[in-house]
Design a protein that fits this description.
Layout (H helix, E strand, L loop, with lengths): L3 E8 L8 E9 L27 H4 L13 E2 L14 E2 L18
Antiparallel strand pairs: 1-2, 3-4
């Protein structure tokens, strides 16, 4: 099993639109495809907080801390065990847009 571990993780409040304020201390078997999402607000289909001209959550079928280019990780994408940009994926795992069978985000 592949994994990415982060020693630092914090999100902002509702009034801050759940900005991904801290993510760091990466280790694990996967490349760091999450830290560049730092500083981005959480975007959903009905609340477009990303800095892309399109609504990335609508385009990629899942809420996330989308970057101006949308993402390098998208653990709320669609479940598809194929190579597809709308799939739940982690850039750097197998093929860059290979759909994941499972993802877990655990906070301690």
């Amino acid at each position: 099993k592949e994994f990415a571990l982060y020693n630092e993780f914090a999100i902002g409040s509702e009034s801050e639109q759940y900005v991904l304020s801290t993510v760091g201390g990466h280790s694990g078997t996967l490349v760091d495809s999450f830290a560049n999402h730092r500083g981005n607000k959480f975007t959903t289909k009905d609340v477009d907080n990303d800095k892309n001209s399109k609504n990335c959550a609508s385009w990629f079928h899942g809420a996330w801390w989308y970057t101006p280019g949308c993402y390098t990780s998208n653990l709320n994408g669609m479940y598809k065990n194929v190579i597809d940009t709308t799939a739940m994926c982690w850039y750097g795992f197998a093929s860059n847009f290979q759909g994941l069978k499972v993802s877990k985000m655990m906070i301690k």
